[in-house]
Here is the input.
Amino acid sequence: MTSLLLVASMLLLAAVLSSAWVELRGAYLQGSDKASLKPGPSECPAADTLPSDAERAAPSRAEQSASKTPSAAQPKPPAGQKTERAKRRRGGKR
Amino acid sequence: MSQVALLGQSSLAAALLVSALTVVFGALAAARRDHLLALAAKWGSYTTAALLLLASSALLHGLMEQDRALIYVWAQSDSSMHGFYVAAAFWGGQQGSLLFWAATLALSAAAAVWQHPWPRPQAPLLSSMLALFVLFFCALVLFFSNPFDTFELISPPTDGRGLNPQLQTLAMLLHPPALLLGYVLVSIPSAMLLVTFLQGRLPDEQEHRSIRRWALAAWLQLSIGLVLGMWWAYTELGWGGYWAWDPVENAALIPWLSLTAYLHVNALGRRRHGAHLWASALLMLTFLLTIFGTFLTRSGFVSSIHAFARSEIGYYFLAFIVALGVSFIALLVWRWRGFYPATVAQTSCPLGAWPVPPTSPATAAEMQARARQPHDASSETASSSEVERSQSPNSAAILSRENALLFASILLLLLALVVLVGTLAPKFHEMLFGDELSLGAPWFNRWLTPLSLILMASTGTGMLFSWRKTSPQRLWRRARMPILLATLTTASAPLAWTWWRFDALEVEPSSLELLYVVIAFWLAAFTTVLSSSELYSSWSRRRIRSSASQAFLALWTQQARRTAGSLIHVGMAWMIFGFAGAAFRVETQRSAQLGEQLSVGGYELRFVGVRQHYARDKAQVFAQVEVSRDGQLIETLEPARFAYYASNMATGETDLRSTPMEDMYLNLLEIDPQGESVLLLAVVSPFTWWIWLGSLLIMLVNVVLLLIPERRETAPSSTQDTTSDVLDHWALGPFPQLLEPRPSALAESEESQGAKP
Here is the structure.
């Protein structure tokens, strides 16, 4: 029984070492610049933003930008055709 | 050198080398922000764990196969021992237990690194910090206390010396690894904390949760270790008690107390900024105390019954404590300014840290909105609320849950301090004055009993307080029903006493002892009633909208920490009840001839015969004693004496009858070779059963709490509080129909939540 445990431990060590070799070699071949942890001057603050803050802040900023700037994804109505909003506004004036 | 020794030595040496490299790689990766080095540190942690697992497997294999070339195998086992105990010999001796410590530490470190979000810059620092701890233990095992040392003899001994017979019990199979694992697990959150300190900041919300869960796991392991140690002392040592205030027992209790204090302060979340620092200090103190406990256990600095673990390596632990303590204080001083949110944004990128940006207007508005939201009754109470903190820092009133938790933490620390003083005072007295000073159970009881009762009172009343503020009128409204029920229960105790005929114990405690016992009974009843009512009310509120089982599940899925806290307090109350019962304990030593009857604490004991049995490793002699009450035979107990062949030692084995009211405990001290007479130790111990029941409840609840994934913290509003709502319901009385809200209140609630009619 303990012989099996011993063999399993050896196999585990071999698996760990081979995985380490594969990942480290892959990272080395990709180049350290691309995979660097080092943040640039602009990304320095954002890189360590607390996850909770980041998660909280991300949707808010997206919503803000969506409300302030016209969305490129949203199709514009054809020329001459009034939008529902414009119709409502006109109706309101009457 | 045998193959096992060679494999073990080389694995240990490789683990030492890899952990040293991991320390360097992790630190360099954090300093240079190099991804490749960070990856190397991560895989270094995993490789160290695998190597130490291999070394542990080698030792276990050597023990099970009885490889006599190893000195450790010879010293801790023999061929006649049962397989379980041979495996337990792994941690039964000094060298093996240190290897166990190193291996479990490396495995826990690998788990912590694996669990840590990657590739955040803290990860390589965490790998480095944990590898430093592993390196210390690897060096200790390899150079000073090596279980793979071999005999330099031509022919090794034919058989081993065997494990200490008193350690060959089920409790000792589990007690040392549980306690050691508790010590190991404390080091993980401590390392996480040290990493954030190195970066000049306090843990963020995610790290805060992670640290708390590791600390909770450590608390569970320490609790299991302590309770199993008590159980072993009670059933194996044969003196009828479970706690002797031995220095080594105290060394395990002190970090448990400080870790409990930490968990109480941690419940504040990030409500109060000062509490965050206080919690961090408590966690570091716990870590230092675990190492200090090991120093006391291993060095022989104080005299103890655990003398089998003595050696010279204790002083290396002392050096380790000093180095860690100095580093922690230096970090606090160095990074002090960074712990305040206003200054964090101004700090330049320190070692591996990215400064937190100023909170964006959108985030602040969102946080304001969150704080204004009506509080969901199902959410957790403790939470982070930076808005509250920035608007009114530390503005909790005196009568608030925040202050109750801080008060509990101070009391727990005071208890730890008293135990520490009582443990070290005899040694320092001897060093200063040259004569011996003995501080036994009476000294500890004199100081710790009143403090424990104050702590228990704060435990009960603490649950009555709301966050931020509680008016005295509201406090009284919530407290009056539990007070009434607790008083009724305590007042009826003399009737129960007479009915159960406890007066037969013929114990006359002093008036002060009696006062303490009455207060302890009252507090146990009060805490049980209060916690149960809180749970019942929470369950009833949920039952309005769902089935009984769903409401029960919701207690665990929506407010797990609060539910667990209430149940753990109930368990503590039961344990206090059991401890208080010791005031009426009766103990007597009597010799009896065959057929003779003895009277002890209302029981009649009759020695009726002897039974013998020869096992593979020992000869067993059982004395058969009939236990009767009022002429009615209740049970036949069989205390015994075991004679071990290998070690040539004899031990007394106890037998007991345990009931919720009292334990009847017998130990066979001597037996006549012809089996004609025996010398018995008989103990009648009221309410001891409740200690084990309370412990079991605490451990089960803790296991469940650890299995439930933790929810993200939400911010309650400052004026509403779920606990206060629940207890306000209880103030109406213990009647379910009164606990149900009015239909109009339900409609209002639905409207406020935007539900459609």
